[in-house]
Amino acid sequence: MARGISTGLLVLVSLVVQVSVLNRLPLPGGIAADLLLVEVVAIGLCRGAFTGTVSGFVIGLVSDAAPPADHPLGYYALVFCVTGFLAGRSLERSGETSVALAMFCVAVGTMLFPIVGLMLGDERIAWGLVGRMLPLALLYNLLVCPLLVWLLGRVLGRRP
């Protein structure tokens, strides 16, 4: 119970930091690391596919509703749900967690965003834009991945 509350608080703090600090940083490309995506991967790696999927869905819905939401509700929920499942299944197959596995899942999750946007007919997503933004998004997400996975592993009682 205490670990669930501490995980929820960590996710809430990450959401506030994401919206109020990271999204406002003047980084190249106008994008920032997605802390919530990395946390969904860490939860999936530490707790398995079911918990990763459910956590991804809930965290994604919260992220979808957080301002400035300019996309359809459920966009992040779908991506986070799939990513949490993938991370959890990776744990079940390998039997142990690692930062390399987390980074792979974060990369897959990052690449799912434009794919889902294109499937949903999001007019703001164009291949040229994806080609410029995706490498930066991957870089930023992979830079924060080891620290957040380690931190959430400590909170959840597992060492990745």
Features:
mainly alpha, Arp2/3 complex 21 kDa subunit ARPC3, about 75% helix, 6 helices, about 160 residues
Mind sketching the topology for me?
Blueprint: H1 2-20, H2 35-47, H3 49-65, H4 75-94, H5 99-119, H6 127-156
Helix pairs in contact: 2-3, 2-4, 2-5, 2-6, 3-4, 4-5, 5-6
Q: From the 3D structure, determine the CATH topology.
A: Arp2/3 complex 21 kDa subunit ARPC3
Which spans of ≥5 residues are poorly predicted at pLDDT below 50? Answer: none
Give helix and strand order, one letter per element, not per position. HHHHHH
- In CATH terms, what is the architecture? Orthogonal Bundle
Largest sheet: none
- What is the structural class? mainly alpha
The number of distinct structural domains comes to: 1
Helicity level, as a percent range? Answer: over 70%
Structural shape:
globular
Mean pLDDT rating: 82
State which percent range the strand residues make up.
under 5%
Q: State the total count of DSSP E strands.
A: 0
Rg, alpha carbons: 15 Å
Cα distance spanning the termini: 21 Å
Protein name: Rod shape-determining protein MreD
Membrane topology: Multi-pass membrane protein
Main location: membrane
Subcellular location: Cell membrane
